Structures are given as C-alpha cells and as structure tokens.
Amino acid sequence: MASTARINAIKSFRCYTIREAAEITGVSTRTICTWIKAGLPVMDDQRPHLIRGDDLRNFIRSRRKERKTETKLHEFFCLRCHALRFAAGGFAECHIDGNRVTVKALCSVCSTVMNKPVAKARLHELEGKLELLDSEEGGASMFETPYPETAQNLGKKR
Ligand SMILES: [Zn+2]
Asked: How far does residue 116's CA lie from ligand 1's centre (Å)?
C-alpha cells in the first residue's frame, strides 16, 4: 500500500532502480511504476530507469499531502510548488488508455506539467470545469516536447 511507503531510508543523492526503490520504500515494483505514470520523475536517458532519491522522497511526501488535502476534481497537485494548483488557462489534456484516463495540465503558477488520473466515469464532471483537449493514444502531447513553446505560452496567457 502506498500509504505505508517508508521514506526514512531513502538517500537524497542516490539513484535507485525501480526494484531498489520498491525495496527501500517497502512497496511493490508495480506501485513504483504506477507512481512513475502519475508523475514521479525518472532519469530519461538511463535504461533501466533510475529514480533520484530526493525525487522519490518528495513524491511520497506530496502524495501524503495530497491525500490529506483532498484534491478537488479540477485541481492538480503541482510537484514543483508542492501545493494544489489550478490548470493554467483552464485547459487540460486527456490521455485515454482503455479505462484509465490521465489528465494533464500546466500549473497556473510555475507552468510545470501536472498529471492526475481521473476515473473515466467522472470525465464529464471535469468537462464542466475545464476545457478538455483530447490527445490520441501515442500522439504528441502539447504539454511536452516537441512543442515546449506552446506549453510555455499557454501557461502565461489568459
Ligand atoms: Zn507549480
């Protein structure tokens, strides 16, 4: 269970493989993979994926905080601000993969990309609060390269 993840043994300046990260926090490798999908940063240029200790610790802490503060449907937890934020410009992007939906938006304060899983059944509720842009599976996200310019402009405008 994510709620019992241990952070005491994590060393900030060490990098962990998914297996090592699972061992040190006491969760399953599957949970670590779920966290990565939910926004836990990994070092992209490394295979197998490596996770920085401080990222891992911050991620677990922010999840605890998120659980406590209970995010509203149209709010996101920004990993950089460590706070609940609204979507910049009122835009969010939906990535639908079977029954899993990930909604991406930019932090209205620091323009960092924020991810959150949303139940497919609740998507229509979200539509009333945010302008949702569909993203085709495997298609490029406007919040990520190769269009970083667009993302930055979106964060500033409106
Ligand atoms: Zn932010």
From this structure: 14
List the chain pLDDT tens, one digit each, 158 residues: 445 789 999 999 999 999 999 999 999 999 999 999 888 999 877 678 899 999 999 999 888 776 666 668 889 999 999 989 999 999 999 888 887 888 999 999 999 999 998 888 888 888 888 998 876 655 556 666 444 444 444 544 44
Question: In angstroms, what is the span from residue 107 Cα to ligand 1's centroid?
Answer: 5
Check if the beta carbon of residue 14 is closer than 8 Å to that of residue 55.
Answer: no
Q: What is the pTM of this model?
A: 0.48
Domains and CATH numbers, the chain: 2-64 (1.10.10), 71-156 (no CATH)
**Contact by Cβ (8 Å): 70, 90:** no
Distance 23 CA to ligand 1 centre (A): 30
Q: Give 80 Cα–ligand 1 centroid separation in angstroms.
A: 5
Query: How far is 47 from 59, CA to CA, in rounded Å?
Result: 21
Span from the CA of 2 to the centroid of ligand 1 (angstroms): 23
